[in-house]
TrEMBL record:
Location(s), subcellular: Membrane
Domain PASTA: 654-711
Keywords, comma-separated and alphabetical: Membrane, Transmembrane, Transmembrane helix
Descriptive protein name: Penicillin-binding transpeptidase domain-containing protein
Source organism per UniProt: Salinicoccus roseus
SUPFAM superfamilies: beta-lactamase/transpeptidase-like, Penicillin binding protein dimerisation domain, Penicillin-binding protein 2x (pbp-2x), c-terminal domain
Membrane-crossing segments per the record: 20-42
PROSITE patterns: PASTA (PS51178)
Domain of life according to the entry: Bacteria
């Protein structure tokens, strides 16, 4: 092999060519490495990849700080909707994992004690997971939305194999409670963000929605956070919304709807309570409805009936034609006409009593709700002028509410027949919110108030008011004098000289208003449904009649049970208790007017004396005692609350005697039977007028009681 001699000073070293090449190769390699490191240090990139960023990504972390969705509150600050932390439960079934389920049967039985799920079903899921060698199993819907208290109980039970994943959900503490108005929010598809899906939750989603923040930090090779590397961007919570809704009045309304639904089993029900002076919506509800917490009933109806449901109102609409005629100077309550029918271009339109009531005065015709009179008045006002009045009352256009998809209704004015039938509330359509708005003009000297349900929207961090709902006048619809005269006429429609609609009278308040019975469009064959009592029955009323403070509009459509009652008593079973309880709650007409009565908290007074029970001392609570002793054996309700003018039932030691339940509502009479373990039957609707067991009778073997109810009609 060839060798090369290299002289180094006085020494000569002999190398083979191969060795020399190896040395040269190593030198070139180190030179390349040096060049590469120099290049990386100077340019900090490799194959167009930023190495600094790559290194940063490897050790940097970002945690999301969730922003909470804003709360929805009632007018007193009570929570109607808020974010709540819930948990999703899973069970580890992989035996290689230290914390796993070891005893499926015992685990299932322990879980069933705390969550609403059968032990056998839980055990089956666990055993399937073990058999199929899954890492974990979940329990479906029953394993989601685990509350904080349930989580603590499960952890205290020391059940092996449980893991919890925290998640945020929207919480609605009152369940089925103004559900279509408030709406609901849930996590959207493919996102962890709560998004408004219905009602105010959807209409104001952009303001209620919170903004997430972040925490950026760096970890070292061993997974520890490097001190001083964390940067926090705090989350921004959504704005809080306060409504004009009063939770107590809303509870009265929901209770009345339940009563009406049970009695009539209708296709639809609606009710709304408004402040007569300001236009504030104090309560609103409907059936079908749904529970936003459990989703029970969800999908039965998507429409918010207050704003999005238009219908032919029937005779309740006549109050606006009356107001127009009075304002135009063509209505004389003492003038007379021939009732019964009216001809329109060869068509004869009849009063609901086809033969009429003979020659009667205009005021009597209004009390009888005469269609013929309304058509006469329209001719006197003039069709063009009457259309202008209806438009000024707000019909045919949205009220400009908080809901972007509010319906406008229609004023059918294409031909003479439509124009005439509109005068008595057929052909043209309205929404409940339009009816409330129109009524405010009559009750406020002709100034129409815009209804509103959002009192304020406030930035939760700064307190800045982003939106303020305020009383506002839409326009002067009729003169002050005309409004006062219209109100005087309406005040004769309930219990006036013709004794019409006496069922709407209350013992403690003078109620005024107008009833309506409208035919309903047949959705299949067109035209109107022609079966017996196929109506939309309604009543729009206010009280007290001399100084109106509250408006209640109530409607029931197509009852399937007790149909005849829709004609005989109308919506009285729902309207009366709602109006009466609202007025008493607001202490209308009492010395402390303007001061709302307080809700009474009820504890457990078992074993204590009656004098120690807080509800028994409350001025606004009626206490009914069964027994002649002092020590309380049982009572209803317990660990709950009582709204003003509700009843507190107490059972004491000693001989139990039948109390006098005269004046109690049907609901309270049934509640008494449940409390005393007695069968209750009722006849009629309204309030207890008489009872089959006389007051003072010893309740020995008595196991049943029958109550006769009445509508508080003085003629009964």
């Amino acid at each position: 092999m060839a060798r090369i001699r290299i002289r180094l000073g006085e020494k000569t070293k002999t190398l083979s060519v191969g060795a020399l090449l190896i040395y040269l190769g190593i030198g070139v390699l180190f030179l390349c490495i040096f060049w590469q490191f120099s290049y990386l240090m100077i340019n900090k990139t490799l194959d167009d990849e930023d190495l600094v960023a790559h290194g940063h990504d490897k050790f940097s972390r970002t945690a999301v700080n969730e922003g909470e969705r804003g709360e929805i509150l009632d007018r007193e600050g009570n929570v109607l909707a808020s974010d709540m932390e819930a948990y999703r439960l899973a069970l580890i079934t992989d035996s290689d994992y230290p914390n796993h389920v070891t005893e499926p049967k015992e685990t299932a039985e322990a879980l069933a004690e705390i969550i609403d799920m059968e032990a056998s079903e839980i055990q089956e899921r666990i055993e399937e997971g073990i058999e199929e060698e899954r890492f974990q199993v979940e329990l479906g819907k029953k394993g989601r939305d685990i509350s904080y208290n349930q989580k603590n109980a499960l952890e205290d039970a020391e059940i092996s194999g449980l893991v919890f994943e925290a998640e945020t959900k929207r919480f609605y503490p009152n369940g089925d409670f103004a559900s279509h108005l408030i709406g609901y929010a849930e996590k959207g598809e493919g996102t962890d963000e709560l998004e408004g899906q219905l009602g105010l939750e959807r209409a104001y989603d952009d303001l209620l929605q919170g903004e997430d923040g972040t925490t950026d930090y760096t970890k070292d090779l061993w997974g520890y956070i490097v001190p001083g590397t964390d940067t926090v961007e705090p989350p921004k919570d959504g704005a809080d919304m306060k409504l004009t809704i009063d939770s107590n009045i809303q509870l009265y309304l929901e209770d009345s709807l339940d009563t009406m639904e049970e009695h009539f089993e209708p296709e639809e029900l609606f009710a709304v309570v408004a402040d007569a002076e300001s236009g504030e919506i104090l309560a609103s509800g409907q059936r079908p409805s749904f529970n936003p917490r459990t989703r029970e009933g969800f999908g039965n109806s998507w429409l918010n009936m207050l704003y999005q449901h238009s219908f032919e109102p029937g005779s309740t609409f006549k109050v606006f034609g009356l107001a127009a005629a009075i304002d135009a100077g063509v209505y004389d309550p003492n003038a007379t006409y021939e009732s019964g029918s009216f001809d329109v271009n060869g068509h004869t339109i009849y009063d609901w009593e086809e033969e009429g009531w003979g020659n009667i005065t205009y005021n009597e015709g209004m009390q009888y709700s005469s269609n013929a009179l309304m058509m006469i008045l329209q001719d006197k006002v003039g069709e063009d002028a009457m259309l202008d009045y209806y438009r000024k009352f707000g019909f045919g256009e949205p009220t400009g509410s908080e809901f972007p998809n509010e319906q406008s209704g229609t004023l059918a004015w294409d031909d003479p027949l439509q124009r005439k039938t509109t005068s008595f509330g057929q052909t043209s359509t309205v929404t409940p919110i339009q009816m409330i708005q129109g009524m405010t003009a009559i009750l406020n000297d002709g100034k129409m108030k815009k209804p509103y349900v959002v009192e304020s929207i406030t930035d939760s961090a700064t307190g800045e008011v982003l939106h303020k709902g305020e009383e506002s006048v839409v326009r002067q619809v009729i003169s002050e004098e005309a409004a006062q005269k219209t109100q005087e006429e309406i005040n004769t429609f309930v219990g006036g000289s013709m004794e019409r609609n006496p069922q709407y009278q209350l013992d403690d308040y003078e109620v005024a208003g107008k009833s309506g019975t409208a035919q309903v469009i047949d959705p299949e064959g067109g035209g109107y449904m022609d079966g017996p009592y196929e109506f939309l029955t309604s009543f729009i009323g206010y009280a007290p009649e001399d100084d109106p403070e509250v408006i209640v509009y109530y409607g029931v459509k197509l009852a399937s049970k007790n149909k005849k009652d829709t004609w005989d008593i109308g919506v009285m079973p729902g309207f009366n208790p709602l109006m009466e309880r609202t007025l008493k709650y607001l202490t209308v007409g009492e010395s402390d007017e303007g001061q709302e009565a307080e809700v009474t908290e009820v504890g457990d007074y078992t074993g204590k004396t009656i004098s120690e029970a807080a509800p028994a001392a409350a001025d606004t609570i009626q206490t009914i005692v069964i027994g002649d002793g002092e020590e309380i054996i049982d009572h209803h309700p317990k660990n709950d609350r009582l709204l003003p003018y509700e009843t507190f039932f107490v059972k004491t030691e000693g001989e139990a005697k039948m109390p006098d339940l005269t004046g109690l509502s049907k609901r309270e009479a049934i509640m008494f039977g449940t409390f005393m373990d007695m069968d209750v039957s009722t006849e009629g609707e309204g309030y207890v007028k008489s009872q089959s067991i006389a007051p003072g009778t010893v309740l020995g073997d008595e196991a049943a009681v029958e109550f006769t109810l009445s509508s508080n009609d003085p003629a009964d």
